[in-house]
Each structure stands twice: as structure tokens, then as C-alpha cells.
């Protein structure tokens, strides 16, 4: 399995390789609280006392869900395989919002595409630099 065939296009003679990684690089969970002043949701910092207390309480009441463990294991394995496949790429782009998408979220394709466009725009200086380096 080669999710990002950098080595293949390298052997084909590509001068510049811009790779797109769709792997969830690191599993992400968060706790949100409602801001009393604005009514909006805010992320609780991982180092906060509230976050630590929530983690303690959660660990006493529930064990890991087998499906969550399997999905997270697959995500970790996929990320490691993808990391190895990305070696040799001149630029790697990771679309924004990829962490929030799972295998069956076909309805979220548009948001991932927009996240890819945004991530690509942010990588433009790096892409231009890679082109400049290859033209020397």
C-alpha cells in the first residue's frame, strides 16, 4: 500500500513533487465550554484544571469503546504509512479540517476541498521556493 506514491513519481522523473496528505496526522479530541459573556463555544486548554478533572472523571466511568480503539489504531497506522510515503516530497500539503472527517463523511467533501485550497495557498511561498531551487 502506497497512499502517496512520492517514490513512484520520483522514479518517473518528476522535477518537483508536491504531495497531498489525507491521513489524520494525530488523533485530536477537545472539550468545549460555553462562554457566559458571548454565548459562543470555546475550546478548553489541554493543560487547564477543568480539562484534567474531565479526564479523571471520564476514566473512572468508562472504558474505551472497541470501535473507537479500532478506528484510532487504523488512523495511527495510516498516518505512519503516509509519513513514510511522503519522504522525498518537496512540499507536503495537509488540507485543513481533515481531522474532522472520517471514512463515511462523503457529504463533507466540499469542506475538505476548501481546506485543501486554503492549505495550498499558505504553502505557496514554499512551492515557489521549491521551483526556484530546481531552476538553479
Uncertain stretches of 5 or more adjacent residues: none
Number of helices: 4
Our measurement of the CA-to-CA distance between the termini, rounded to an integer number of angstroms, reads 35 Å
- The ordered H/E elements are HEEEHHEH
Outline type: extended
How large a portion of the residues is in β-strands, by DSSP E?
Answer: 5-15%
Oligomer: single chain
Helix-strand category = mainly alpha
Q: Main beta sheet, described?
A: 2 strands, parallel
Number of strands: 4
Determine the mean pLDDT. 78
**Order of strands across the biggest sheet?**
1-4
Assign a percent range to the helix content. 40-55%
Radius of gyration: 19 Å
Fold and architecture overview:
The protein has helices at 6-11, 49-61, 66-86, 109-135; strands at residues 18-20, 32-34, 41-43, 91-93. The protein has 136 residues and is mostly helical. The protein has a domain at 6-25 and 64-135. The protein has a two-stranded parallel sheet. A two-stranded antiparallel sheet has the order 2-3. The longest helix has 27 residues, at 109-135. It is extended, with a radius of gyration of 19 Å. The protein starts with 5 loop residues before the first helix and ends with a helix.
